[in-house]
Amino acid sequence: MLLPKGKITMIKLHGKEYYLYPDLNHHHVLIGSNRNFMQYNQLVADQLTPLGSTQGELDQEWEESGAWDDLEGWRGVGW
To answer: Global pTM?
Structure first.
């Protein structure tokens, strides 16, 4: 499997989801569980959320970002 540079990729193996990120600078692949990926997303959201934004504004920005795949969830989110 060829992993896209600078992207997180979700794979399923034996019924479990794993998230892979190729770290080309260090010549290895970072692997995380769904819990790890959700923690990562929360950290990113916390850093990107402007103070005083309403939930509706955040939902609109999230939808427009194109990071959510309606069929199967997160796919190839840039890091």
So the answer is: 0.55
